[in-house]
Every structure is written in structure tokens, then in C-alpha cells.
Amino acid sequence: MNPNFTPTIRQLRAFVEVHRLRKLSAAADKLFVTQSAVSMLLRQLEEGLGARLFDRTTRSLQPTPAATEMLPMAERILRDVDALSAGFRDLAQLERGRVSVAITPTLASFLLPEAIQRFMHAHPQVKLQVDDCAPDQFVSRIIGEHVDFGIGTPERPGAEIDTQTLLRDHLALVCLPSHPLARVRSVRWADLQGHSLVTVRPGYGIRSLIEKTAVQAGVSLDVSNEVSFLSTALWMTTSGMGAAVMPAAFAHAENAPELVIRPISAPRVSRDVSVVTKRGRSLSAASLSFIETLRGTLGGRKR
């Protein structure tokens, strides 16, 4: 026996079929190869193992004791290989699999519901997991490979992640119709001075962008209420606790008819919501399909 010999899958298939059918011609038909090819595969297997596997008679091939002992192991290997191939095929065809995505609760509430509904209807066998994390945990969940990818706005992209833009959003002022700035068609940053504002707390989402822009515009903001979630900012605004500064897309998605939404300009500030992946990590077919579904739902909203 050659100590470095490892049987190939083709050799094992030829062996199992010949053992079952006892004829080279029948095994060749089953494997869709020539009889000489089956004979060669068996010869290679016997030479590598250093054992005769079949005795030839006038009518058929008879397995030797070595072949009888080897058969269960060969069949088990082929079952495992076939199961592995079927598993990869199912993953590629989205007949099974898993998608895990990190996203903040605020973004999830207005980006994901329609996309998830469509994706689960199209691919019911794929398991979808949403990791609703805090903004300061977002990038670490991706880099640590706790999720396949994330959807959000990393404050400091860095060298460990890649981003692909899903949508570009701009900041807006949300207020009651009775608010003085509700009558202004386009609110400037300078107009915000002296008004009580509600926005996210430092370290969360857009807060650093708001503070940076206010400094550039020479404006001192009166932030009277700080929140962790933009949905909280909306009900505070509805209650008259101040006007909220938030992404326009979220404000429009909440569909609150009792509130007025005005873009903030001079300067007009935008932010990108992106698909965020760990650099060098490939996405599965299921993950790519979910991202395309999400792009489709966002495109439908734009139209």
C-alpha cells in the first residue's frame, strides 16, 4: 500500500457501483462513463490500497473480503460528500441559509419591515436575524463577526470595514405647525439659535454631525432634551417639548401628520446610510439577496 495514497471520489463511486452491480458495463452506464474508465479507476484504487478488490469470473465480478470490509466506509464518505454538495447548492439557491445584520433600532424601524417581509416571502427557508444594537456597538459587531454585515452610518469608517451607500439622507427640523420655524420654507442653521431643540445624546448617531455643522455655521444650539432614539424625539416634539433635528428620511417614514418637516440648509448636511462589511470578508448568497431586496424597497420609496 502507498502510505501517501488517498482515494478520489471518482474511484470510490466506481468501486461502490461495481460492488452493487457486479459488472463493469452496468457500473459504466450508471456513472455515465466508458467501461474502460471504470476499469482504470478500479485498478488505480487497488494499486493505491495494495489490495485486490474484485475477483473476475466468467459472468461477473465478485468482491473480495477487503472490498466487503471497505464498502461501508466508502458509502459513508460518498453520502457525506453528496450531503455537502447538496448543502452548498441549497445555499447558493437560497433553499437554506442564514442572514444576520446589525442595525440600530431607529434605522431598523423604517428601513427593514418591508424588505424583511418581501425577503421572507421569497425565501422562507432562509433564517433572518436582526441584531438591534446601540450606535456605539455597531462597528464592533461587524468587525467581531457577530453578524454578516451591518446597515448604518459608522462615525469613523477606518481601515477594518468597507461601506456601500444604500441611501443619502439630509438633516431636517421637525416641529409643530405652531412653531415659529414651521412657516419657513427652508430653515437655516442660523435660524435654530434661541429655539429649544430635541436630538440624540452625544455618541449616538447624528449628534457629532449636528455639533460639527453648528460650529461651522457659528451657531450655539440650545439642546433642551437628549434622547437615545429618534422615535422618542418625535413624541417629545409632538408634546411641545421642543423642535427636533433628525434625518429627513426617518421623519417622513414615521408619517406623523401633526408635525411639520423642514430641510435645514446653509449648509445642507447629508449623511450616507450604508451596507457595512468587515474588510476582506465575503457575503453569502443569502446576504447579497437580502441587500438587493432592501435596495429594491428603498428604490420603490423614491419613486
* Count of discrete structural domains: 3
Tell me, briefly, the overall form: rod-shaped
Cα radius of gyration in angstroms: 32 Å
Please mark out the parts with pLDDT under 50 across 5 or more consecutive residues, or reply none: none
> Mean pLDDT across all residues, rounded?
91
Which class of the largest domain in CATH terms? Alpha Beta
Category by helix and strand content: alpha/beta
Q: Largest sheet, described in full?
A: 10 strands, mixed
Q: How many distinct beta strands?
A: 12
The oligomeric state is single chain
- Fraction of residues in β-strands: 15-25%
Helix-strand pattern = HHHEEHEHHEHEEEEHEHEHEEH
Brief overview:
With 303 residues, the chain is of the alpha/beta class.
Describe what you observe in this structure:
The structure is a single chain. With 303 residues, this protein is α/β, with parallel strands linked by helices. The chain has 3 domains: 9-92, Arc Repressor Mutant, subunit A; 98-165 and 274-302, Periplasmic binding protein-like II (D-Maltodextrin-Binding Protein, domain 2); 167-271, D-Maltodextrin-Binding Protein, domain 2. It is built from 11 helices and 12 strands. The chain has helices spanning 9-21, 24-31, 35-49, 65-92, 105-111, 113-122, 138-143, 207-217, 230-238, 248-254, 285-302; strands at 54-56, 61-63, 98-103, 127-132, 149-152, 161-175, 187-188, 196-200, 222-227, 243-247, 260-265, 270-278. The strands form 2 sheets. Strands 3, 4, 5, 6, 7, 8, 9, 10, 11 and 12 form a 10-stranded mixed beta sheet that branches. A two-stranded antiparallel sheet has the order 1-2. Strand 1 and strand 2 (61-63) form a beta hairpin. The longest helix has 28 residues, at 65-92. It is rod-shaped. 30% of the residues are buried.
